[in-house]
Automatic annotation (TrEMBL):
PROSITE patterns, A to Z: PDH_ADH
InterPro entries cross-referenced by the UniProt entry: 6-PGluconate_DH-like_C_sf (IPR008927), Arogenate_DH_2 (IPR012070), NAD(P)-bd_dom_sf (IPR036291), P5C_Rdtase_cat_N (IPR028939), Prephen_DH (IPR003099), TYRAAT1/2 (IPR045011), TYRAAT2_C (IPR059064)
Residues in Prephenate/arogenate dehydrogenase domain copies: 74-351
Entry keyword Cell membrane: no
GO biological process, one term: tyrosine biosynthetic process
Cleavable signal peptide: none
Keyword Cell division: no
Keywords attached to this entry: Oxidoreductase
Record protein name field: Prephenate dehydrogenase family protein
Length: 362
């Protein structure tokens, strides 16, 4: 960059700058836009200019791109840096966002290995003024962790996000504890480190914009955060927290319950596994990898779950009655003979009757 005003202290300097200016102006490339040709003609006529840079159009464009990237980059704080917190942090860092982390355990080396910063003291983290605070703790510790944060050290319009497997509970906790000047976005990435280890493509991501300020910058910040999951290929599903919990009780909780029941059976792989059996083994692996606190949280903090447990019990009883009801007494005699009838009679009398009602509608 040549500054004309900086070369006018002496006549010799002014003469040198004039020759250099004349030389550089006529060296401008012919393919520059019209306004730059006009700029060149004005210079060649002896008009004074403050600066000339033949690469200015390209530098300006680069600055625009960089400014756009800077405006979409977020400073994201993750509170709770366990398996799922690290799982999310890798995606945030991969997309160019600045990530701060905090956890009860010291995960400094783990955070630094993926390009994030670790703060053992939440006060120090909040003084970094993150744009987004992602609460990534267990369901049962959410309220305690939220109350322990030094909210007064944050910007007054900070966006709070939860990623819990239940939604009404964190929504109500956020609304009770967070002052009204904080934004609230409730989300549920319906996948984890195991199911999303290869790709997030077409995996559902549920979100509810519970409380977002009307300013353009706050609306844009929410969209920038959601774009992280869009760019990873997630299937974005916007629904209320109440609706989410109704669906999750019949899908996620039943899935986890079935997996934990099968885990109690201690299923093992065999030389003659069928595809269906392999699916059951995969289900056990996926669900047993999660902590029991997660499963307990699904049970404790979703009011729709108890109904599903009752329906599960009724379904199992109905299935047993249907199964044993087909053991007609004549067929039993043919199979076991009269000699064993006395042994079987006490057992058969304990079996459920066949006149059981069908399951009630959900």
């Amino acid at each position: 960059m040549i500054s004309f005003s900086s070369l006018q202290s002496t006549p010799a300097a002014r003469s040198a700058s004039s020759r250099l200016l004349h030389h550089n102006v006529h060296q401008l490339p012919s393919f520059l836009p019209l306004q730059h040709h006009h700029h060149r003609r004005r210079c060649s006529q002896g008009l004074r200019v403050h600066a000339i840079d033949a690469a200015q159009p390209y530098d300006y464009e680069a600055r625009l791109v960089n400014r756009l990237n800077q405006s979409t980059r977020l400073k994201i704080a993750i509170i709770g840096f366990g398996n799922f917190g690290r799982f999310l942090a890798k995606a945030f860092v991969r997309q160019g966002h600045t990530v701060f982390t905090h956890s009860r355990s010291n995960y400094r080396s783990v955070a630094e290995s993926i390009g994030a910063a670790f703060f053992s003291d939440p006060h120090d983290l909040c003084e970094q003024h993150p744009d987004v605070m992602v609460i990534c703790t267990s369901i049962i510790s959410t309220e305690y962790v939220l109350k322990s944060l030094p909210l007064q050290r944050l910007r007054r319009n900070t966006l709070f996000v939860d990623v819990l497997s239940v939604k009404e509970f964190p929504k109500n906790i956020f609304l009770q504890i967070l002052p009204p000047h904080f934004d609230i976005l409730c989300t549920h990435p319906m996948f984890g480190p195991e199911s999303g280890k290869h790709s997030w493509q077409n995996l559902p991501f549920v979100f509810d914009k519970v409380r977002i300020g009307s300013e353009a910058s706050r609306l844009a910040r929410v969209e920038n955060f959601l774009d992280i999951f869009k760019k990873e290929g997630c299937r974005m599903v916007e629904m209320s927290c109440e609706e989410h919990d109704r669906y999750a009780a019949g899908t996620q909780f039943i899935t986890h319950t079935t997996g934990r029941i099968l885990e109690k059976l201690q299923l093992e792989s065999t030389p003659i596994n069928t595809k269906g059996y392999e699916t059951l083994l995969d289900l056990v692996e996926n669900t047993s990898g999660d902590s029991f606190d997660l499963y307990y949280g699904l049970f404790m903090y979703n009011e729709n779950v108890m109904e599903q447990l009752e329906r599960l019990d009724l379904a199992f009883e109905a299935l047993k009655k249907e199964l044993f009801g087909h053991l007609h007494e004549v067929l039993r005699k043919q199979l076991f003979g009269k000699s064993e009838e006395g042994v079987l009679r006490p057992v058969l009398e304990k079996l459920p009757k066949t006149d059981s009602p069908l399951l009630p509608p959900q």
